[in-house]
């Protein structure tokens, strides 16, 4: 294994994921700027994000079949960048419904920026370093979440929303060369099945392998709660920080705290099995959400938000480790891609649910998120995660 394999991977994954984090807000701002309609902008953003649920299983199945998964990821990155470019260039030139179709098709390629990359980590490092590698991979999500929205907001303010979208395209395109360096895989074609059969096999694995079922159910419900917290941040900004726009600071606190904890735990792993680390981190996330829901002032809000971020880092790293440990090798990419898509879709649904509950006040949103997070925690062991000390 090349000593440059993991650094090259981390560079490519960070660029791709930062590009995605820039693309979402930039598309939202662009749609608002050119249409003047919040509804149109929101629909365009939703079409780009929620469609990943459909692309995950299919893209993962394709990754599990090809000998050079890096080439497929690179091709998907190019297509994602082209799709975003068409949305910008086609506005006022292409009928709006067609642009929504383009956004949906582009959104199905999101697994090329998320789970499709993570599925390759096990082929880049020896087994003893895998837990550390998954922590570093989780840190790329945190870094992207910290910098992406900031880049979109700064560029949109200084240059314009279209230029912010162009920045997203450039970042995604820069991830193509590292993707092409991902290692080739010797595939066993003796039992090659149809794509449909492979997709069903991957979904069956997630549903029937106890630890995969438990961690998928728990992490998906957790993102449902987290999507509600994201929507609550502007409301918290308005109530405690002097304005809705200051709610973005709270999102930055989550991302920065998560980045810090993932980097630290990559160097000094938490004790216990992956299952126990995941469940324990999930409990702490719920505690953080509860603190925010009950916070009497801005300082306690920031403390609660920081607790959520600090626990989120180890939780994601443990999630990656459990998926790698439990997924059959021939279905690994599909398990990662499908899981990533489910999480992103759950976050979008959570955001929509928070929008409905916001009419009843910010406490209703945050209290519901905290309850959902604790339900997510309980669903892990109920679904199949083990609390035994001997599980590796």
Folded structure, characterized:
The chain has about 400 residues and is an all-alpha fold. It has 2 domains: about 1-180, Growth Hormone, Chain: A (Up-down Bundle), CATH 1.20.1250; about 195-385, Up-down Bundle (Growth Hormone, Chain: A), CATH 1.20.1250. The protein contains 16 helices and no strands. Helix 3 crosses helix 10 (about 195-210) and helix 7 packs antiparallel against helix 12. The longest helix has about 30 residues, at about 5-35. The two termini are about 25 Å apart. The mean pLDDT is about 85.
Characteristic key phrases:
Growth Hormone, Chain: A, 16 helices, 392 residues, 78% helix, 2 domains, mainly alpha, 0% strand, single chain
Question: What is the compact description of this entry?
Answer:
This protein is mainly alpha-helical and 392 residues long. It has helices at 5-35, 38-50, 52-63, 69-90, 96-107, 115-118, 130-158, 161-174, 176-180, 195-208, 210-240, 247-267, 274-294, 298-326, 332-357, 362-383.
Determine the CATH superfamily of the largest domain: MFS general substrate transporter like domains
Would you state the CATH class of the largest domain?
Answer: Mainly Alpha
Cα-to-Cα separation, first versus last residue: 24 Å
The helicity comes to over 70%
> On the 0-100 scale, what is the average pLDDT?
86
Domains (count): 2
Element pattern in H and E? HHHHHHHHHHHHHHHH
Question: How would you classify the helix and strand content by structural class?
Answer: mainly alpha
Low-confidence stretches: none
Task: Identify the overall geometry.
Answer: globular
Radius of gyration: 20 Å
Q: Hey, roughly how much beta strand do the residues contain?
A: under 5%
Summarize the biggest pleated sheet.
Answer: none
Number of helices: 16
Query: What's the architecture of the largest domain in CATH terms?
Result: Up-down Bundle
CATH topology of the largest domain: Growth Hormone, Chain: A
Number of strands: 0
